[in-house]
Amino acid sequence: MRRFAPLFVDVVLVIIFCAIGRRSHDEAVLAGLLKTVWPFGIGLLVGWAIAAVLARGTRFDATALWPTGVVIWAGTLVGGMTLRAVSDQGVAVSFVIVAATVLALFLLGWRGAIRALR
């Protein structure tokens, strides 16, 4: 179970990011949450897969800020925005900037905090 804890944390944070976004735009949080989460959820899984492949031959540390966290963040952002565009959801420049910032704070922040505490 401990092995999957970092993935679980990332999934929860992506869901929170989407819920905050829906709430800030006065949209029904629970009713439309899946529509908002799925592109970023798939992007997150793609980011995790790329990070795992890049770590081949070395010990994969899912809590590492660099390169693991950055790759997961980039995969979540790029994958999420790409899938939103393909599915006719909004990808305004302002949204991309906000999403990049908040996802970095969430996905990189907890990894940085762990490093600081160690």
Automatic annotation (TrEMBL):
Identify the Pfam families for this entry. DUF3054
> Record's InterPro entries?
DUF3054 (IPR021414)
The protein's UniProt keywords, in alphabetical order, are: Membrane, Transmembrane, Transmembrane helix
The answer to whether UniProt assigns keyword Membrane to this entry is yes
Q: Which domain of life is it from?
A: Bacteria
Transmembrane region positions?
7-25, 37-55, 64-85, 91-110
Name this protein carries in UniProt: DUF3054 domain-containing protein
What is the organism of origin for this protein? Nocardia rhizosphaerae
Q: What is the lineage of its organism?
A: Bacteria, Bacillati, Actinomycetota, Actinomycetes, Mycobacteriales
